[in-house]
Amino acid sequence: MRSQADETTFLGALDAVNEELRDAFDPAWRGLTDSERRALAAVATSAGRPTRREALDRLDLPRTTAQEALARLRDDGQIALDADGRWSFVDPLFGRWIAEGRPPE
Question: Are 41 and 102 in contact (CB under 8 A)?
Fold first, then answer.
């Protein structure tokens, strides 16, 4: 017999996945440049609009630096730009991990 998971079960499973993947996310995060980390944080916290003034100001990230980092991250397969001009993570769990509080620098 199949049963449906409620929200608590789903969130518990998601937390378990995040815990398992943290060992992979942390070295990947630390292997990025400062501008790449800031650009990814901007993608994760700006609904895919990391070059908007609010996102740039919050992360103290110059627009040109952000654009260059976004291009490198796109070329490395970390993020993608959709037809509407929004950036998203290729691995949405990595994006969620960043949005929820990446490790301190």
Answer: yes
